[in-house]
Please model this.
Amino acid sequence: MTLNKCQNSLNTYTLNGKPIARAQLPLSGCVSCIEISVDGKSALIGMNSYQENDETSNNNKKISLKKPGAADFNLESEDTGEHNRLDVPSPSICFLDLYTLKV
Model:
């Protein structure tokens, strides 16, 4: 499981790196902690509200780290299954299924 702060999304992958699921996080919050279950089937995430003085928040910044000639790795353009948007209030604690990233 990875957290992409630039795209504000959670992603899960197989051990070989093949994408399994992607979930878009609400723009009004950020993930403060992630814990994976012992059996590897679910995750617990803690959501916080963004603070205007938070320097780690990239809501209003556009960051480009792409090198010239580099391949564009964008999960939205690949056939990785269903992309869902997590509709959770902030602050909150959520349990997610790792295979679907549904609450």
Observations:
- The radius of gyration is 14 Å.
- The longest strand covers residues 29-36.
- The chain has no helices and seven strands.
